[in-house]
């Protein structure tokens, strides 16, 4: 199918929490090849961590004003309220953007989002260039669809508007079923046998000829992902998913809160405290930006259970709200005072 050059192409990038979607997009931005890009980031909670990571790239191809964050819920469940205004905002930019990247939240279903491109207010202006599913290679090789299933449950809890509450295996199958390209992430951690096992899992759930591309640290030539010209919205009804024809579902019950912290002296000590909170108080997920005393750089902290990663992502700027904040997610009944006592030291 020939791409309609009068419409701005959009690439939908889906995949579970921690699989590497943001890293992949950052690599695309840094290797845009002259394209003017915009990004819609679907983020849970009050602090848009993924959006801030992308805004902090400092890449000319995608200036900060071209990064639009949707923090009001899972994009597949709030399409009318969030997606259309975001598209309007991006298309009003001058100069005109050449391509839009949409990073969905980990539990989003691609099909309802792609179907929104058929709406009269949308279809004459944008088209789905392709749907890319990022999957966790090592997890699949070990027989799981995600590295940390509890973290996915916590992410689901962060959004009261999420109207699908199906097993994550079914969400995985829906994401792969809608994909035009599957990125097998963390491929540097796979030997030949493990890679074959991971690819076999993906092959079980695709009804079409879909390429599986290995990637390490999100490094893929953007030419592989962009410019597919598939107009997916015209074919989306043929991509069968578990949720076709389904209506409302139940909701899981979790707690989430945002904690302000003072500047820290030792990042490793903070990481240890986050891990302790996960162990003692059942914190499933924590992420945020932290100020380190005497350092000009911003510290990014991301934790899934007791596994805590932290690194300096960029320098603080004059426009930043220079303070330390963590989003904390856990099961309903989370003991916030106890968690605050541990994290505040």
Characteristics:
single chain; Rossmann fold; alpha/beta; 2 domains; 5-stranded antiparallel beta sheet; 12 strands; 7-stranded parallel beta sheet
Q: Give helix and strand order, one letter per element, not per position.
A: EHEHEHEHHEHHHEHEHEHEEEEH
Work out the strand percent. Answer: 15-25%
Number of structural domains = 2
Radius of gyration, rounded?
Answer: 20 Å
How far apart, in Å, are the first and last alpha carbons? Answer: 59 Å
CATH architecture identity of the largest domain? 3-Layer(aba) Sandwich
Largest sheet: 7 strands, parallel
CATH H-level superfamily title of the largest domain: P-loop containing nucleotide triphosphate hydrolases
CATH class of the largest domain: Alpha Beta
Number of strands: 12
Which structural class matches the secondary elements? alpha/beta
Helical amount: 25-40%
> Mean pLDDT, rounded to whole units?
80
Low-pLDDT segments: 45-49, 246-253
Placed side by side, the strands forming the largest sheet appear as 3-2-4-1-5-6-7
């Amino acid at each position: 199918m020939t791409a309609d050059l009068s419409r701005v192409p959009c690439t939908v990038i889906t995949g579970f929490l921690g699989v590497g979607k943001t890293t992949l997009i950052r690599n695309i931005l840094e290797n845009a090849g002259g394209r003017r890009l915009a990004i819609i980031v679907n983020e849970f909670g009050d602090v848009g961590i993924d959006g801030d990571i992308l805004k902090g790239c400092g890449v000319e191809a995608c200036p900060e004003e071209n990064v639009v964050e949707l923090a009001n819920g899972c994009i597949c469940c709030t399409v009318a309220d969030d997606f259309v205004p975001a598209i309007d905002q991006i298309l009003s930019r001058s100069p005109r953007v050449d391509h839009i990247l949409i990073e969905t939240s980990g539990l989003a279903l691609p099909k309802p989002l792609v179907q929104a491109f058929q709406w009269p207010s949308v279809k004459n202006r944008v088209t789905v260039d392709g749907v890319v599913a990022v999957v966790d290679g090592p997890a699949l090789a070990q027989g799981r669809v995600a590295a940390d299933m509890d973290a996915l449950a916590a992410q689901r809890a962060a959004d009261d508007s999420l109207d699908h509450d199906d097993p994550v295996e079914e969400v995985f199958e829906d994401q792969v079923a809608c994909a035009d390209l599957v990125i097998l992430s963390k491929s540097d951690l796979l030997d030949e046998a493990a890679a074959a096992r991971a690819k076999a899992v993906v092959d079980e759930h695709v009804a079409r000829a879909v390429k599986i591309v290995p990637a390490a640290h999100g490094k893929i030539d953007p030419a592989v992902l962009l410019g597919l010209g598939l107009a997916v919205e015209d074919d989306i009804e043929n991509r069968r998913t578990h949720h076709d024809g389904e209506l409302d579902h139940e909701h899981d019950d979790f707690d989430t809160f945002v904690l302000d912290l003072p500047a820290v002296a030792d990042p490793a000590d903070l990481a240890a405290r986050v891990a302790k909170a996960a162990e003692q108080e059942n914190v499933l997920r924590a992420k945020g930006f932290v100020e380190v005393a005497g350092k000009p750089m911003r510290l990014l902290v991301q934790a899934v259970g007791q596994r805590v990663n932290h690194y300096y992502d960029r320098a603080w700027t004059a426009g930043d709200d220079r303070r330390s904040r963590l989003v904390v997610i856990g099961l309903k009944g989370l003991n916030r005072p106890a968690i605050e006592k541990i994290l505040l030291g």
